[in-house]
């Protein structure tokens, strides 16, 4: 049964596209469920980070071609809704790519803040080989992830990046060896940094990073950060952590 599966691993929401027989290809129904799962993770105050993955052997083989063939603008936008929900997510996001990420599946991987790859990962634009123009903002996301030359190689010339090539290109942040369970466990361990941080601070900092990414001057970034930083100085989370640190220092004397 094609479905989106969600579970909590401590403070991490793990969202899985599950339709292995079709290599987790996105249908309108799956995209709608994916968007709903991301929204649910955002509403859950116990969730500090969101992981998105696909049931092996693929990460996501793109849009279901039968659905795509019948789509026009409205239908395409319905298919986009799933990975755009990841792109817009207020919480830190990680794409856990254990197999092929193709077309809209590449978009799903690109939509995350960080990509962690397994040894069988493949990053494949493929739109042109199907006779399709890229969609869903792929050209924008890919050029920002790997630069214009590599993006051109992947999009216009059909270059496919394996896990190590993706790591070298900066498309993947790290490669974790082993099977899918090991990959997922490694990604959850990586997410511990977000899990340990105050949730409101994660959301505010991610919002600030989105803003400062579009600034030209360092001074403008200083101004953008100063208000939320001052607010964090008055937060109970900072007070508690400062007190714990001071007690630790006092106890070590």
List the keywords:
253 residues; three-stranded mixed β-sheet; 9 strands; 15% strand
Summarize the structure.
By secondary structure, the protein is α/β, with parallel strands linked by helices. 52% of the residues lie in helices and 15% in strands.
Describe this structure in words.
Helix 1 links the parallel strand 2 and strand 3. The mean pLDDT is 95. Helix 1 packs parallel to helix 3, helix 3 runs parallel beside helix 4 and helix 5 crosses helix 6. This protein has a six-stranded mixed β-sheet with strand order 1-2-3-4-6-9, sandwiched between helices. It is built from twelve helices and nine strands. The chain has 253 residues and is α/β, with parallel strands linked by helices.
Class from helix and strand fractions: alpha/beta
Work out the helix count.
12
Give start-end ranges of low-pLDDT stretches. none
Number of strands: 9
Mean pLDDT: 95
Helix content: 40-55%
Beta content comes to 15-25%
Whole-angstrom Rg: 19 Å
Shape: globular
Largest sheet: 6 strands, mixed
What is the ordering of alpha helices and beta strands? Answer: EEHEHHEEHEEHHEHEHHHHH
- Give the strand order, joined by hyphens, for the main sheet: 1-2-3-4-6-9
| Straight-line distance between termini | 60 Å
How is the secondary structure organized here?
Elements (H helix, E strand, L loop, with lengths): L2 E7 L2 E7 L9 H16 L5 E6 L10 H6 L2 H16 L4 E5 L2 E3 L1 H8 L2 E4 L4 E3 L13 H9 L1 H8 L5 E2 H7 L4 E2 L4 H11 L1 H5 L2 H14 L5 H16 L2 H16 L2
Parallel strand pairs: 2-3, 3-4, 4-6, 5-7, 6-9
Antiparallel strand pairs: 1-2, 7-8
């Amino acid at each position: 049964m094609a479905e989106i599966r969600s579970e909590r691993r401590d403070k991490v929401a793990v969202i899985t596209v599950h339709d292995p027989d079709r290599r987790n290809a996105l249908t309108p129904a799956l995209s709608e469920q994916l968007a709903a799962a991301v929204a649910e993770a955002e509403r859950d105050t116990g969730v500090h980070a969101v992981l998105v993955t696909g049931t092996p052997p693929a990460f996501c083989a793109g849009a279901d071609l039968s659905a795509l063939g019948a789509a026009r603008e409205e239908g395409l936008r319905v298919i986009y809704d799933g990975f755009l929900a990841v792109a817009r997510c207020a919480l830190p996001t990680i794409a856990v790519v254990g197999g092929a990420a193709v077309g809209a599946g590449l978009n799903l991987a690109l939509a995350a803040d960080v990509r962690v790859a397994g040894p069988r990962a493949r990053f494949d634009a493929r739109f042109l080989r199907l006779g399709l123009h890229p969609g869903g903002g792929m050209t924008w996301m890919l050029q920002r992830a790997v630069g214009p030359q590599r993006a051109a190689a992947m999009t216009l010339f059909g270059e496919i990046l394996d896990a190590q090539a993706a790591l070298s290109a900066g498309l993947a942040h790290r490669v974790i060896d082993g099977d899918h369970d090991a990959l997922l466990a490694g990604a959850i361990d990586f997410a511990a940094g977000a899990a340990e941080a105050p949730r409101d601070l994660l959301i505010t900092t991610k919002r600030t990073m989105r803003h400062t990414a579009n600034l030209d001057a360092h001074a403008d970034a200083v101004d953008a950060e100063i208000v939320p930083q001052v607010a964090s100085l008055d937060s109970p989370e900072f007070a508690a952590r400062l007190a714990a640190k001071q007690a630790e220092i006092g106890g070590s004397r």
